Amino acid sequence: MLLFSRPRAYHGVAFLNGYVYSVGGFDRVEHFNSVRRFDLTTRTWNEVAPMHSRRCYVSVTVLNGFIYALGGYDGHVQLSSAERYQPEINQWSLIAPMHEQRSDATAFLNGYVYSVGGFDRVEHFNSVRRFDLTTRTWNEVAPMHSRRCYVSVTVLNGFIYALGGYDGHVRLSSAERYQPEINQWSLIAPMHEQRNLHLWWIQWQRVSADMDDDQPHEQPPQRDRCHCICGSCLCSKTTKKC
């Protein structure tokens, strides 16, 4: 069994095909490009192929059987590069870089990978970009109402929710959601506290009991369970204790 021989933080987390992946990160000395995965059946860690770049503050999401790693910080500069992992061949491949160097949050919806907010160590962004898997290009969509880095992002019932974060001056309690059909962000009820880098959990219900949503939330046949840390979400329809 492979254990983490060194501590790590600000890594990305993803769930794919029965494995929990820990992507990049740093330990106050070194910034990692290494990737390890936890087997929920054997409860063991194993190392897989490393990324092309060292990345902490990296945004990670899963779409169509690939793990996407976007931006981050390599110990010297913020990154605009992005790559994706194909587990069948244990290989990372570079994809089109983002328009800015940034550390941000990611979400996938309707076949697009969204890069939401973030910062480049100078500016804090309210901009949102999305990656088209067909054309393999990045395009800008409507910006959020607030600048948000360290923002937590998830998808529910066809909306992208962005909660809290830091705008460069204060931590935020505000929250908003994006509707792709009309390319618009709308403010929702704020959280009770100002939060960034927070942990939150969703089980196919309202994101918060305080949210104003007049649309009924349909229950899927089997509920997803999602754990989101620093904007990275781990979701499984067959989540097990580990």
Automatic annotation (TrEMBL):
**Domain of life (superkingdom):** Eukaryota
Which keywords, in A-to-Z order, does the entry hold? Kelch repeat, Repeat
UniProt cross-references to Gene3D superfamilies, sorted A to Z? Kelch-type beta propeller
Instruction: Fetch the Pfam families from UniProt.
Output: Kelch_1
InterPro entries attached here?
A: Kelch-typ_b-propeller, Kelch_1
Name-wise, this protein is Kelch-like protein 10
